[in-house]
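Q: Hi! First time doing this. I have a protein sequence and I read that you can turn it into a structure. Is that right? Here it is:
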Amino acid sequence: MIRWILLLYACTFTQAAFAGDTTFQFPVDCQLGENCYVQLYVDNGARDEIIDFKGGYLTNDKHTGTDIAVATYEMMDKGIPVLAAADGTVLGIRDEAPDHYSRKYDFDEEKACGNGLLIRHNPQWTTQYCHMKLGSIRVKQGDKVKAGEKLGLMGSSGRADFPHLHFVIRHYGKVVDPFPSNLWANPIDYIPFGAIDMGLTHQRISVKDVINRAPRQTTFSSEDELVLAWIRVFGVEEDDIIRFAFYTPENQLFGTPSAVRVDGHFKEWFSAAGFTLSKKVTSHLSGQWCIVYEYKRGNSPWVTLGELTFQVNHSPINT
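A: Yes, that's right. Below is the predicted 3D structure, encoded as structure tokens:
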């Protein structure tokens, strides 16, 4: 057993400023807001509080790192490179735990980090990389690595409820949140909520149906049961509203937008809405449609989380 893995759950926290001391590169080869997102931040709360550094809810109790995630296991399996955040020496690795493709799984509590590695950058600083993909780690103990060097791939091993990298920075063994401490080489904006993934399908679905291989239907006909738009959103809070607005080929709003009010604080929220297809709809409104996913918090204006176009074709009855 590699004992350093246990530090993930047995360390203390510090938020001191380290101006000019050192900086770290983003440890995943992805584009935030495009094909990856920050799901969780370091827990900055007091003993009985669970809050991120901005006072939001995007963290867990005693959460020690930054969780950088992708939307689906399908994306994970295409290979998302994990990169060294700074020059350093590999102190240890683990590459033996299976990846999970479900939110119900068994794992070894003493190896909650799953597959991962620890790098020492100088006498003060270390970084830890957790939940990496089985068999992907390409460095070994004692190797010298350069900032930006590929270490392996993002995975879902250990205690991982979604495909992501759990990235931890420590200063003399104490966890440091890189956001309030200004440790990123290139500053990263805090995003309190946003879309994880979105799409369309012709049948009713649940979040379990979209987290593995998400349906992304773009063409519908009268032979389909319905047009259903779905979305996954991170960082929702109580009384936030998610709205689905469908527009016809003539750019006219189709019916009344379907709105869903959130009933609590959730790190992730899944919602879907749509309309039943009929020969009348497809015969009179064939062409390119648009679905706009909108979001509202409190008295703030509506925010567009995204939009997709899709084709509706009329399929006449054969005689």
